Structure formats: structure tokens, C-alpha cells
Amino acid sequence: MILNYIHLENYRNFKSCKLTFNEKTLIIGANDIGKTNILSALRILLDKSIPESALEPKDEDFCAYCETSEANEYSILLHFTNANEDCIRSGFKEFISENNEVYIKYKASRNSVGGKKEYEILVGPSLKLLEPVSTRFYLRVLNMRYISATRQIDKYLKTQKTKLLEYLKESRTQDEKISDEKKFKLLSKGVKEIEKDLNTLTFISRAGTKLNTHLKELSEHHQQQNLSLGVDLPSNEDLFNKINLLSTIEESNIHIGGEGRKNQAFIALWSALNVISIEDGQPEEISIFCIEEPEAHLHPHQQRKLAEYLVNNLKAQVLLSSHSPFIACEFQSDSIVRLHLNADFQSTTCSQQGVSKVVSKTINNLEYRLDALVSEVYFSDCVFLVEGTSEVLFYKHLALGLNIDLDRLNISILSVEGVGFNKYIDLLNSLGIPWVMRTDNDYQKYHRKSKELKEAYYLQGIRRLINIYKEKRTSTVIPGLEKDLTSIIEENADNLTENANACESRRKEMYDTFYPHLSKYGLFVSKIGLEEDIFNSHNEVRTALEHYFSPPKEDEEERKVLNDVISEMQKKKSTFMYFFTAEHTSVLKWLKTDPLADPLHSCVSIIKKIRGIENEEDSSHS
């Protein structure tokens, strides 16, 4: 049996959201986006640890973003498929359809905020045949096992350890039971002998004598009793309860201490219990494993290994919520669900209605390039795509110079070097992640045998943005633009391609024509290239560049100011950018109103709109 989807209507921060799942599913998204709320919705219907008395809806469970008519109702619908197991068929009986489907629904209502609240649970083989039920009768055969992000791992370990021992104790053969009983009797006798011998140690017996002497001086009561200090070893049943998880090093036992190791031990215990429960062929119950932030206390290598283990070893349906790019980059590409804000920038939705082949295809198109660094964008609220490492270095320091806190605003800057923009844009679009981009306004020479102009120079950067505008962005006219961008493209088609040489005046003309319009769509083009634009941006920046490339003043006799600083910038590329921006971050503040800074300001505007902080001045000081 597998949970196929959950559909939330007016529940907490979800107005209407359907999420489909696979056997293993990773739920990702920014903080406070609703990952825990999805698991909370599942818990209402499937978690045995939540008593019936705690199922009463609360005011905070009703969506705050609904229309007035909808504000006093919410529902949680679960759809299950492949209900083939014997335990499920006997547990649900007439509630299973001919196609082995089961629906479970929770409906809540209130007459007003703070008023009377009611709920009902419905079960059925289809949406039309749902019937109210008095209890969650199905929990003995269908349930979930849940670990919260704030888990008390020691408590969980103790509980799961006891369950494992009980499972194995019950599954012993008759011969094993007889053998264990004999050994236990011998051990019990040995325990008593050890206890007796320990109590004869001189310092222990003396301590008892001194204690009684002082006790008699304090009170006349119970004078006939003597207290003693001694070792009270556990009885037979207590001995069983005293068994703990230990780590053995060179035959010495130590308690498991690190939280990361305990986290791994707990998941291993879960897996062991899961294997035991199904190794006889038919399980007694179907459990869905739900873990919040499984990466807790684990270093990157172990986070990657954990993702692999959960996918390949845990023989059950598993739902994970995580903030780890190390887990995200290793997870099955067709099993990632990303939550993000809806078009209203209030309620939460998910890309592609859950797991999707569309997302899988865009991830797989990146091939080996999808690593933890790239996977960081899964958790971003906005991504700024640039051509290479130099741009990443420059814009991170420009953000610092402009007092734009990229991490606080959850903005990532990503280089598309070696891949191109399209594959990354497809990935971001499939996951519902807003993005902007910047490319060079470069010329490219083409040889055209069938054309009158055999050798033509194309303004490739602007053409690149036009293609992305047509294929990846909406072509809807943005209010406030004097002219539709589509008509501007048609009017200037020849100006972008029919050039006999790399004419600078034509480049400037096309930049001035297209920049105001393309930038409205988050599509930014250089005046020429990054290095040229930086050098020509502001006198303070140019002076800093000339000083950077000039020899020290003590070599005054041989000192020559370089005539071509731009060539030096391009020659040393990323190395130059790394050292120059690190040393001159404060100078970059002069670029606040320069077009170089426009993509960053665009990102900040997107974040402000998402968070509803249009007037918050300290977000970027821009």
C-alpha cells in the first residue's frame, strides 16, 4: 500500500494544495513554508501517538488567507493505492475499491473564530462513497511513524530498542527459549553472588557503619533497623530493561554519546524493526515513515550516505523534510517536492503538484553538475544566474558593498558556466523558484553561404535574452511599458544580425533599445562585458582599478600606468576578481545606481514582494 497524494483545503497556510508522493519522497522549501504542516496533517489521520481526544480542530488550523465563506472550514484528504496486503484488506474491508484504492478524509468546521468547532473522519473506496466513522479504527493496520525536528533522540532510542528486543524475543524458536532460560538462571545466580561480594568491600561496609552511627543521633525512630550502602543489582525482569545501546572499542563498552551517532542508530533500529515486520511475507501493519530533518547532527558525507540508505534500505514508504543540499543532490530526481508561496504571495503551494517527471527531467539534464552547491538553489527564494565564476565573485561583493544581505534575503547567485542558462532556467521554473539573469552583450561572427552578407556579426547576448523571453518568460505586456517587447524585437531583428563588423555604435544602440524592456522581465544585458562595464562604471571604481594594476610607489622610476586595464582584468579573470573585490568592497558602494547593480535590486524587489515588505528600508538599503 502506498500514500498516493494528500489534498489540503484551507488548512493552516494551504488554501488548496495537492501533493503526490512516491515510495520515497523528499519535501524541501524555505523555513516556515509549511513542510511541518504537511506532516502535521498526516499525523491527524495516521499517527497513533495522537489520542482521539486531541483531534479537535484549533483556530490556528483554519487558513487565514481564505475568503470569508471558506474561512471556517478545512479538510485533509489522503488517497491510497495498491491496498493489497492481507492486514489492510481485513482492516478496511468494504472501504477498499475494486482498484485497491482507499480514501481517508478529515473535515473540520467552526461557527466563528473562537467559537464551537466540530470534526469528522470519513473513509471510503472513492470520493463519492466516503462514509463517516466514529474512530480511526484503521490505525492498527495503517499508521505513520514520525520523528519531529525537535526530537528527543534518547527517548526514541529507548522506545525503539525495547520494541526490537520484544520483537526478537517473541520470534524465538522453542529451543532458543529453553536455551535462553537456562542461561538466564545462571546469570541471575551470578548477579546475586557479585552483589554479595561487592557489599563485603571494606570501604562499603564501613560507610554503612558510619551512616548508622550518625542516624541514631538524629532520630529515635526505627532503632532496630540498620541502613547500609550496597550494590542493588537488577532482578531478572529489570535486567532485561537495563539493556542499553553501547559502542564497543577493543572489548570496552561505552555509551553512544554524539547526537549524530544516536540519530544514525535510531534510523538503523527503525530499519531493523521494519525488516523483521515483513520478513514473514505479510506484515501485520503498514507504516509510513516520516522524518523531519534527518540530517540533524551529521556532517556532509554522512548526510549523503543517509539519503542513500533511506532510499535503498528502508523497505517502506518514507517521507522526509530537509534543509540539506547534500541530501537533496543525492535524492531520486523524480521524488523531490518543493513548497513555495502561491501567486498571492501568502498561501503555500507546491511545484508540479508533488513528485514529477518534469522536475526529474530538468534535474537530470544537469547531469553530473548537480552538486551540493547547485542544490542550494532548491532552498532559495530567488536565484540570480550569471555566466561564470567572475560574476559570482563580483556580485557577492557588490551585494556587500550595497548592504544587501543575500543570506538574510535567501538569494543565491549561481554560475551557469559550461552548461548555459536554459537548463538552469528549466530547473528553476519546474520548481517554482523566481530568477533573474545577466549576460554579456557580446558579438559573435557567423559565416553564411546563402546570405548576401556572407560574414555577419550577431549581437548574441541580446538574442540570447530574446529567446529566453519567448520560451521561458511570459510574453504578456507589462503595464507601464510604452511598447510591447514583441514588436520591438520584430522591428530590430536585422539590427541584431545584419552587421558587417562588430560595430560599437550598433551595440550601444541595441543596448539602449532593449535594456529598459528586457530588464522588466529580469533579463539583464551588459553594455559590453563584465570587465568593461566595471571599468567604465564610476570614477572611484576606475581609480581603484588603476591603482590595483600599478606597481608599488617605491618603483616610481619604472612605474607606468597600464594603458589597458580591461585586458589585465580579463587576462587574470577570476583571480583578479577574487582579490580586487575582497580588497575594495567599500568602493563598490558607488555602483548603487549603476546598471551593474540592477539585477541585485531586482532580486531584492522579488523578495520584498514575496514577504510583503515593500516598504521595509533595511532589507537592502537600495
Write up what this structure looks like:
- This protein is 41% helix and 18% strand.
- The protein is built from 22 helices and 20 strands.
- The strands form five sheets. A six-stranded antiparallel sheet has the order 2-1-4-5-6-7, covered by helices on one side. The chain has a six-stranded mixed sheet with strand order 8-11-12-3-13-14, with helices on one face.
- The chain has four domains: 2-152 and 282-352, Rossmann fold (3-Layer(aba) Sandwich); 162-217 and 224-257, no CATH class; 380-418 and 530-622, no CATH class; 441-525, no CATH class.
- α12 (389-401) packs across α21 (565-583) and α15 (460-472) runs parallel beside α18 (504-518).
- It is of the alpha/beta class and 622 residues long.
The CATH architecture term of the largest domain is: 3-Layer(aba) Sandwich
Number of domains: 4
Poorly predicted runs of 5 or more residues:
245-257, 556-562, 616-622
Which whole number gives the mean pLDDT? Answer: 83
Tell me the overall shape: globular
Total helical elements: 22
User: Mind summarizing the main beta sheet?
Assistant: 6 strands, antiparallel
Strand tally: 20
Instruction: State the CATH superfamily name of the largest domain.
Output: P-loop containing nucleotide triphosphate hydrolases
Please report the first level of CATH classification, the CATH class of the largest domain: Alpha Beta
Q: What is the third-level CATH name, the topology of the largest domain?
A: Rossmann fold
Distance between the termini: 54 Å
